[in-house]
């Protein structure tokens, strides 16, 4: 049993094509990959919105002035 | 791979592109250093993170659809349908898009194009620092990096692209297909985004916002030069036989070619890269009266201006063309800034966008009548084709999509950070925690010292 279809390299390499595991499930892998990508944007977008809203009210005037001086 | 010569050629080509990709990584390192050096301390971490995350986001989307666009879109939608046959091997579920002993070139070729995608997105990233939301920039990064630039590459940077065939468009080292489009896109975004607080006085006079760390900025641009050299090599096919090109070239002499499979040499582009860098540096030094950062950027703008024709120019032509481009770019940057009150934080619109456009137009005149392709029936290089190409790159595929998406984001209130946050800095929370922790440990150490001094006195 082998996840990529080869359990030995006793082969003519001219006859060998893809060697990654789970061949035949490429479309499913793409769907999972796209969901991961879109999900990442969603999580980041929500978190950044919350962070910026909170940050609007957290600035201490003296500390902000000190930051401006630091350039 | 059948036959030792074929095998050797394939392995050499595979290794050649792999090396260029590693060199091109330095472009992104340089952009990160440049952006961080140009930003103020209160925004450093966010500025860095904004650019770093371009890498994974553009990479995965270029895998999912960007690479397929390049192969499927050369004539789509105006001059034919999608080329599904050529696109098939480059779909994300194709078995050539993975570990495949029958295909040794797709991955490195994909990566060479991908690094150009990072560059396109990174150019936009620099112009919008210190006031754009990261989430907004990252959507722009995906659009410019995995959609718009690769459409323009399919049209004008592909041996069968309609712009090459019909317009005689020639852009060997991407004056237009990377730089003009990214500069145009950045212009569209900053027009909607607006300037940083304090950039313009009440009477509209622009204020300089000097870099926080000029040395980081300097090293950054030198790394961009280095990576750009790798980029030049990546734009070539390193060695190919005329019978493989299957065009009009006669004889059996193998050659390097540009992306259009028209002959050039590594020697030529080495001459021209260095001479256009030099022309740009020298002109920028004079026009900016020795301003260090304009001089460095002028070197880059010089290469970008000459890039469209650097596969064919004489080195002295490359030098002069670079110098002319830099003078135009410098003047145009300040005119646009004053006239339209635009804040391009790193001069990306000028150095990439204007230089790219100027370079395309100059190439149309200097290379007038030269074949754009080794294939029969293609238009030769000409000024009308190059000017039309410049409009398509800068305005149609660059400015318009950037402006429209930024308008949508602004309307939804998700483009720009709140003014309070802009003033206190995007890293306020991190700095606040850092300063508090620093004060606490210094105070604790002082108390410890005082306690020991007290004990010793007793």
Automatic annotation (TrEMBL), chain A:
Protein keywords: Membrane, Transmembrane, Transmembrane helix
Superkingdom field: Bacteria
Entry's transmembrane regions: 20-40
Record's protein name: Heme exporter protein D
Taxonomic path: Bacteria, Pseudomonadati, Pseudomonadota, Alphaproteobacteria, Rhodobacterales
From TrEMBL, chain B:
Membrane topology annotation: Multi-pass membrane protein
Similarity annotation: Belongs to the ammonia transporter channel (TC 1.A.11.2) family.
InterPro entries: Ammonium/urea_transptr, NH4_transpt_AmtB-like_dom
Protein name, as recorded: Ammonia channel
Membrane-spanning segments: 15-36, 48-70, 107-129, 136-160, 172-194, 215-240, 260-285, 292-309, 315-333, 345-367, 387-406
MF (Gene Ontology): ammonium channel activity
Localization in the cell: Membrane
Lineage: Bacteria, Pseudomonadati, Pseudomonadota, Alphaproteobacteria, Rhodobacterales
GO terms for cellular component: membrane
Pfam families on file: Ammonium_transp
Domain Ammonium transporter AmtB-like: residue ranges: 20-433
Broad class of the protein's primary localization: membrane
Gene3D superfamilies named among the record's database cross-references: Ammonium transporter AmtB like domains
Superkingdom classification of source: Bacteria
């Amino acid at each position: 049993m082998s996840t990529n279809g080869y359990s030995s390299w006793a082969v003519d390499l001219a006859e060998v094509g893809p060697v990654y595991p789970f061949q035949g499930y490429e479309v499913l892998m793409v769907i999972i990959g796209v969901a991961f990508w879109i999900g990442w944007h969603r999580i980041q977008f929500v978190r950044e919105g919350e962070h910026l809203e909170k940050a609007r009210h957290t600035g201490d005037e003296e500390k902000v002035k000190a930051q401006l001086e630091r350039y | 791979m059948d036959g030792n010569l074929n095998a050797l050629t394939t392995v050499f080509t595979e290794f050649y592109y792999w090396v260029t990709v590693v060199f091109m990584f330095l472009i992104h390192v340089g952009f990160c250093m440049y952006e961080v050096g140009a930003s103020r301390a209160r925004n450093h971490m966010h500025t860095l993170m904004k650019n770093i995350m371009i890498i994974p986001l553009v990479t995965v989307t270029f895998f999912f659809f960007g690479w397929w666009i390049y192969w499927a879109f050369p004539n789509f939608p105006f001059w034919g349908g999608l080329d599904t046959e050529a696109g098939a091997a480059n779909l994300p579920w194709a078995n050539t898009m993975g570990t495949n002993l029958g295909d040794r070139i797709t991955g490195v070729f994909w990566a060479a194009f991908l690094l150009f995608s990072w560059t396109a997105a990174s150019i936009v990233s620099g112009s919008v620092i210190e006031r754009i939301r990261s989430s907004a920039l990252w959507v722009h990064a995906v659009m410019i990096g995995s959609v718009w630039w690769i459409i323009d590459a399919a049209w004008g940077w592909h041996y069968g692209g309609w712009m090459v065939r019909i317009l005689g468009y020639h852009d060997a080292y991407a004056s237009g297909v990377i730089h003009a489009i990214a500069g145009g896109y950045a212009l569209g975004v900053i027009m909607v985004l607006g300037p940083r607080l304090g950039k313009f006085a009440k009477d509209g006079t622009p204020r300089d916002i000097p870099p926080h760390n000029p040395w980081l900025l300097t090293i950054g641009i030198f790394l961009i030069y280095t990576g750009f050299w790798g980029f030049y090599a990546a734009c070539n096919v390193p060695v190919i036989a005329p019978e493989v090109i299957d065009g009009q070239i006669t004889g059996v002499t193998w050659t390097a070619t540009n992306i259009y499979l028209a002959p050039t040499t590594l020697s030529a582009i080495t001459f021209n890269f260095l001479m256009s860098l030099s022309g740009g540096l020298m002109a920028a030094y004079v026009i900016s009266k020795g301003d260090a950062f304009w001089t460095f950027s002028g070197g880059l703008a010089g290469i970008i201006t000459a890039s469209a024709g650097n596969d064919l120019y004489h080195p002295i032509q490359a030098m002069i063309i670079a110098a002319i481009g830099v003078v135009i770019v410098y003047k145009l940057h300040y005119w646009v800034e004053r006239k339209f009150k635009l804040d391009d934080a790193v001069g990306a619109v000028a150095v990439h966008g204007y230089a790219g456009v100027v370079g395309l137009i100059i190439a149309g005149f200097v290379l007038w009548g030269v074949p754009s392709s080794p294939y029969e029936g293609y238009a030769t290089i000409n000024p009308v084709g190059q000017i039309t190409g410049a409009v398509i790159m800068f305005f149609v595929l660059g400015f318009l999509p950037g402006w429209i998406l930024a308008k949508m984001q602004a309307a939804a209130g998700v483009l720009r950070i709140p003014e309070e946050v802009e003033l206190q800095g995007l890293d306020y929370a991190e700095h606040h925690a850092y300063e508090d922790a620093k004060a606490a440990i210094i105070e604790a150490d002082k108390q410890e010292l005082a306690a020991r001094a007290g004990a010793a006195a007793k």
